[in-house]
């Protein structure tokens, strides 16, 4: 399943055809519904303002390395107030251990 908003980049045939050829289910949020995917929207905002906009990457490989490092930091080191000052990884493990 690939979920997006209805931006023109996601509704173009250039984007959709490769997904359809691989039989990937496509889901699109309702038009004008930014809150449909608020957690991901907030993550992208944080990533841009706390990392991307503060750096000038010289090439795509440097960008990939920087994003990988930041996502590792975000998930395993950065404590989140909304998760009771746990990292997302800590919260996830704690949340799912009761089902095992």
UniProtKB/TrEMBL annotation:
PROSITE patterns: INTEGRASE
Domain of life: Bacteria
Name the UniProt record assigns to this protein: Integrase core domain-containing protein
Record-linked InterPro entries: Integrase_cat-core (IPR001584), RNaseH-like_sf (IPR012337), RNaseH_sf (IPR036397), Transposase_IS3/IS150/IS904 (IPR050900)
Biological processes, Gene Ontology terms: DNA integration
GO molecular function: nucleic acid binding
Organism phylogeny: Bacteria, Pseudomonadati, Bacteroidota, Cytophagia, Cytophagales
Positions of the Integrase catalytic domain: 1-96
């Amino acid at each position: 399943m690939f979920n997006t908003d209805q931006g023109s980049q996601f509704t173009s045939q250039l984007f959709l055809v490769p997904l359809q050829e691989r039989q990937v289910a496509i889901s699109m949020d309702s038009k004008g519904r930014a809150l449909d995917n608020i957690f991901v929207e907030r993550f992208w905002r944080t990533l841009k303002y706390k990392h991307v906009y503060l750096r000038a990457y010289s090439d795509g490989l440097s960008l990939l390395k920087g994003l990988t490092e930041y996502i590792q930091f975000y998930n395993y080191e950065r404590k989140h107030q909304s998760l009771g000052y746990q990292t997302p990884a800590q919260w996830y493990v704690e949340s799912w251990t009761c089902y095992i």
